[in-house]
Design brief:
Blueprint lengths: L1 E4 L6 E4 L2 E4 L2 E4 L4 H6 L8 E8 L3 E7 L7 E7 L1 E8 L10 E7 L5 E4 L3 E7 L3 E8 L8 E3 L18 H4 L13
Antiparallel strand pairs: 1-2, 2-10, 3-4, 5-12, 6-11, 6-13, 7-10, 7-12, 8-9, 8-11
Length: about 180
């Protein structure tokens, strides 16, 4: 797989080789040696997925230290606009974000280091997102940033949101716990 660095240090877009034949496609989403060569985390503690419909926006989510985690995310059905926002105060890209279209057709993957808030907006009729995380869920560490902050230009300013996502503080008001 090709590992493409993003603007944000430690955040990568992974482009796996897709094998097509008469049955469909086969995509490898994880390869230990490729991750290890780039210094990426390889010990994932939980894996889960979400199903969402068009216009749903989930995020921007993260876990605070000491339960912060690396995320490896990809879309197995449909297409999403995936966004990460750098929350690490000592990072040269603190407060900056990147956007990547993830889709089941192109099979790309996003590797998100600790200290980044993550969210996505569903572009297709439905989308299924898979998440691998390097720490187990900790309710007391679970947090988020309001989706309208951080200078992110979403494709829809009236998305379908959870009450939880509506209630997060804006990035500008949030005191980051990430060094």
């Amino acid at each position: 797989m090709d590992v493409i660095p993003s603007l944000i240090p430690g955040c990568y877009e992974l482009l796996p080789r897709i094998i097509h034949d008469t049955r469909g496609a086969f995509i490898k989403t994880f390869h230990f040696d490729s991750f290890r060569e780039k210094g990426m985390e390889t010990r994932f503690q939980e894996q889960y997925y979400s199903r969402s419909r068009k216009r749903v926006l989930r995020g921007l989510h993260f876990q605070n230290p000491p339960h912060d985690h690396v995320k490896l995310v990809y879309c197995t059905e449909g297409e999403v606009l995936d966004v990460v926002l750098d929350m690490r105060r000592s990072s040269p890209t603190y407060g900056r974000h990147i956007k990547v279209n993830l889709s089941s057709n192109n099979g790309n993957i996003l590797y998100i280091p600790k200290g980044l808030a993550h969210g996505f907006y569903v572009l297709s009729e439905h989308a299924t997102m898979v998440y691998n995380v390097s720490s187990t869920y900790s309710p007391e560490s679970d947090d988020g940033i309001h989706w309208t902050s951080g200078g992110i230009d979403w494709p829809d300013m009236d998305p379908i949101l959870s009450d939880r996502d509506r209630g997060f503080k804006r990035f500008e008001e949030y005191e980051s716990k990430f060094i």
